UniProtKB/TrEMBL annotation:
Boundaries of every HTH luxR-type domain copy: 270-335
GO BP field: regulation of DNA-templated transcription
Pfam families linked to this entry: Abhydrolase_6, GerE
PROSITE patterns: HTH_LUXR_2
Domain of life (superkingdom): Bacteria
Organism: Paractinoplanes abujensis
Protein name as catalogued: Pimeloyl-ACP methyl ester carboxylesterase
Length: 349
C-alpha cells in the first residue's frame, strides 16, 4: 500500500500536510499528541496498523501545525485551531466520511461530529476522554509538562513508557526517537498542555452519528473511566473494552483493535493471520521477535541456516510484510513481548 502526500492551507496561511492510503470510502483519522506522516509510515508497527485499517477504504491522516511535515506556527494550540485543521482536510473530500479520533484526536473528533453532523457517517473514539484535567492530578500534570520542556529526551522516554508499557525495549526506544523527531520540545509541551485542557463535555449530547468508543482496560495515559464517561453521554454509542495497557493504538494487540473498528465501520474483518503460518513458522516468527539472526534461528531449531532463511521468506510472503521488523511487531501484537533470546546451547558434536 502506498501513501500519497498532499497539503492544505488554513485561513491564516499555515500549511498542513496530509496523507492518503488505500482506496474506497474515506476514513479521516485524527491522530494523537505528536505526529509525522513520513516517519510513521516508516515505523513498521504503526504502518502495519494503518495499512490494516485502510484495507478496502481510503485512510486520510494529517500532521497538525508544528508537527512532522506541517509548517510551524506561532499560534497557541486550541480546540478551535484543531478544528480548523480538520475542516481544511475534510474540504478535500466530496462525500461524508467515517471519523476516527485517537488519544487527543478523540475529543477533537467529538467536537467536529457535534458541530458538523452531516459530514460524519460513523464515529470511532479510541483512548479518548471528556475532560483532560481528569487524566492526572495537577501535580503530575505539571511535573510531566516541566520534564518535556526542560529535558525533552528524558521526557520522550518517560512518556513512551507510559504510552506503550506492553511493547519491547526496541519498540520503545524507536518510538521515543520518533517523538523527538516529530516536533520541538516547546511544541510538544504546548500540545500536551492542550491535551490536559480539552473539555468536550458540552458537545457530547450533540453527537448524532453512530459511535464506537473503544478503550484498553489498563490504559495508563487515559483512565478507562473516561471511556465510560464518553459512552454515558453520547447517544447511539457502544462501548468496547479490550485488554491491554498500551495507549498507542498500534502497540499491544492492535490486530484485535483493527478488527473491532472495521466491524463497526461495516468493513470486511480479516481473520488473524496466524492461521496462515505453520507451527515451525510461528517458532521462527517468535525468534525473530527476540532479535535472532538467521544463523541463531538455525542453531536454536537444529536446522541449517539456508532453511531458516527460507522460513523467514515464506513468513514475509504469507503475512504480506517486507521486513523482519514487521514480523517482530506483528508477533508482539499477537502474543505480547517475547523475552530476549538467551545464547544458544552448544550441542556436542
Amino acid at each position: 500500500m502506498r501513501q500519497r502526500l498532499g497539503q492544505v492551507t488554513l485561513a491564516d496561511g499555515t500549511t498542513v500536510a496530509y496523507a492518503s492510503a488505500g482506496s474506497g470510502r474515506p476514513i479521516v483519522y485524527v491522530m494523537g499528541w505528536l505526529t509525522h506522516l513520513q516517519l510513521s509510515w516508516e515505523f513498521a508497527a504503526e504502518r502495519s496498523f494503518y495499512e490494516a485499517l485502510a484495507e478496502g477504504a481510503r485512510l486520510v491522516r494529517y500532521d497538525r501545525a508544528g508537527c512532522g511535515l506541517s509548517a510551524a506556527t506561532a499560534r497557541t494550540p486550541s480546540l478551535e485551531f484543531e478544528l480548523e485543521h480538520l475542516a481544511a482536510v475534510a474540504a478535500t473530500l466530496d462525500e461524508p466520511f467515517d471519523l476516527v479520533g485517537t488519544s487527543m484526536g478523540a475529543p477533537v473528533a467529538v467536537a467536529w461530529a457535534a458541530a458538523h453532523p452531516g459530514t460524519v457517517r460513523r464515529l470511532v473514539l479510541y483512548g479518548g476522554w471528556v475532560r483532560g484535567a481528569e487524566l492526572a492530578s495537577p501535580a503530575v500534570r505539571e511535573s510531566v509538562l516541566g520534564l518535556v520542556e526542560a529535558h525533552w529526551g528524558l521526557g520522550s522516554d518517560v512518556l513512551t513508557d507510559i504510552f506503550a508499557p506492553d511493547a519491547d525495549r526496541a519498540f520503545r526506544a524507536e518510538h521515543a526517537r520518533y517523538q523527538r523527531a516529530c516536533s520541538s520540545a516547546a511544541t510538544a509541551r504546548a500540545l500536551l498542555a492542550l491535551s490536559y485542557e480539552l473539555d468536550v463535555s458540552a458537545h457530547l449530547t450533540q453527537v448524532r452519528a453512530p459511535t464506537l468508543i473503544v478503550h484498553r482496560t489498563g490504559d495508563r495515559a487515559a483512565p478507562v473511566a473516561q471511556a465510560r464517561a464518553l459512552s454515558d453521554s453520547i447517544e447511539h454509542s457502544q462501548l468496547t473494552l479490550l485488554p491491554g495497557r498500551s495507549h498507542l493504538p498500534y502497540a499491544g494487540d492492535h490486530v484485535e483493535l483493527v478488527r473491532t473498528v472495521r466491524r463497526f465501520l461495516g468493513l470486511p474483518v480479516p481473520r488473524r493471520r496466524a492461521e496462515g503460518l505453520t507451527a515451525r513458522q510461528r517458532e521462527v516468527a517468535e525468534l525473530i521477535s527476540r532479535g535472532c539472526t538467521n544463523r541463531e534461528i538455525a542453531q536454536r531449531l537444529g536446522i541449517d541456516e539456508r532453511s531458516a532463511e527460507g522460513h523467514v521468506e515464506r513468513i514475509l510472503q504469507r503475512l504480506g510484510f517486507r521486513s523482519r521488523a514487521q514480523i517482530a511487531a506483528w508477533h508482539t501484537a499477537q502474543w505480547g513481548v517475547s523475552p530476549p533470546a538467551s545464547p544458544p546451547v552448544e550441542r556436542p558434536r
